[in-house]
Amino acid sequence: MAISNFKVLSWDQLTRDELHAVLRLRIDIFVVDQDCPYPDLDGKDLNSLHVFSMREGESPVSGVSAASYIRICAPGVSYKEPSIGRVATALDRRGKGLGQEVMKRAIEECDKLWPGQGIRISAQCYLEKFYGDLGFVSTGEQYLEDDLPHIQMCRS
């Protein structure tokens, strides 16, 4: 399946069907697949940008999940720097480069909106190499977040 165009939208620009598609993906990946019940709706979505893609030929109106998703928080929402989080790729789209593509789009958006500020993430430890290949560097010790090992990483 091909991927249709990516969208970058603020909370106010998301349609209810797009919101359903991105929340469905986040729940499918973080709660169901990773078996990690956690408070997904933390209030940060309202002050964030939402980067996502749909499968070619699928519309959020049909109730399906997005194919990929990232939340970009402005400086001061999660960290001093802009941050990227809630990075998710649908299980049937993994291994096809979609995760790297959505990350590159989010990085470009951060660089455009907040040039020279860098980007901070809280990465699941098993993805440290994935983020490292995108220019992120570990900045501290591992810690548990929602009972999963994480590490903070920054990109200059």
Largest sheet: 4 strands, antiparallel
Number of domains: 1
**Element order: H for helix, E for strand:** EHEEEHEHEEE
CATH class: Alpha Beta
Strand line-up in the sheet with most strands: 1-2-3-4
Q: Tally of extended strands?
A: 8
SS field, number of helical segments? 3
Computed over alpha carbons, the radius of gyration is 15 Å
What structural class is derived from the secondary structure elements? alpha+beta
Estimated share of beta-strand residues: 25-35%
The stretches of 5 or more residues where confidence is low (pLDDT under 50) are none
Classify the fold: give the CATH topology.
Aminopeptidase
The proportion of residues forming helix, as a percent range, comes to 25-40%
* Superfamily (CATH H level) name: Gcn5-related N-acetyltransferase (GNAT)
Mean pLDDT: 91
Distance between the termini: 34 Å
What is the CATH-assigned architecture?
A: 3-Layer(aba) Sandwich
The gross shape turns out to be globular
How does this structure look, described?
The chain has 156 residues and is α+β, with helices and mostly antiparallel strands. It has a single domain (7-116), classed as Aminopeptidase, CATH 3.40.630. The protein has helices at 16-33, 98-113, 128-132, and strands at residues 7-10, 48-53, 68-73, 83-89, 119-124, 137-138, 143-145, 148-155. The strands form two sheets. It has a four-stranded antiparallel beta sheet, sandwiched between helices. Strands 5, 6, 7 and 8 form a four-stranded antiparallel beta sheet that branches. The longest helix has 18 residues, at 16-33. It is globular.
